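User: Hand in any protein.

Assistant:
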Amino acid sequence: MWEFETVLSEVIPRTSSVRSFRFPVQGKNVRFRPGQFFFITILVKGQPAEHHFSFSNSPTEKGYIEFTKRITDSDFSQTLAAMTPGAWARLRGPLGDFTLPLRQRKLSFLSGGIGITPLRSMLRYVMDKDGDCDASMLYGSSSVEEIVFREELDLFAHRLPGLRLVHVLSGSSMPGGWMGRTGQINSDLIREVMPDYSERLHYVSGPPKMVVSLQGQLLALGVPDRLIKIDSFTGYD
């Protein structure tokens, strides 16, 4: 476990409502595994306030720690939105076992909205390590404009031949020319996209209602609980 004080170095817009926040690493031996999370303390209305976030950068991206957040109306979120480079923060971590398996195996990534952040960390890590993978990803977004890390996800799919990426839009209106999937990620789509779902280790990441629903649907398909790893992003249902 490490803990250190740092300052905000960069804010990166990802969509109209999602931003990434980067902080320089201070000290040595600040390690983490892709998919883990950490705690950040900032000053909210002059008082220290702590929240946990998944790493959205990979351990292969050295020198900084990044998390990515959809901006909401909460005091913590609004404080983050108003922060500028140089603002103080304290980071503590890493924690969590929502991580890649130690041995190579077939994978499934089922994600919605801001739940993509730990999966982005994992896929960037695999790509940087020149690792082979056999993975299928279903990623749900409300609109094309709200697909977080869209260009990077497309790059991963191009650079990793074993990755099948399927975008699913749930919004009421679709853009002209959209040839992708629409609706919700569910067991029917899982069976269609990955007929060998029973052989895969499933990572389910997103808003709590989505995570609970997909976990239940996987169990109903006969996937054992030991092959389902979940990461629930509270505050986004």
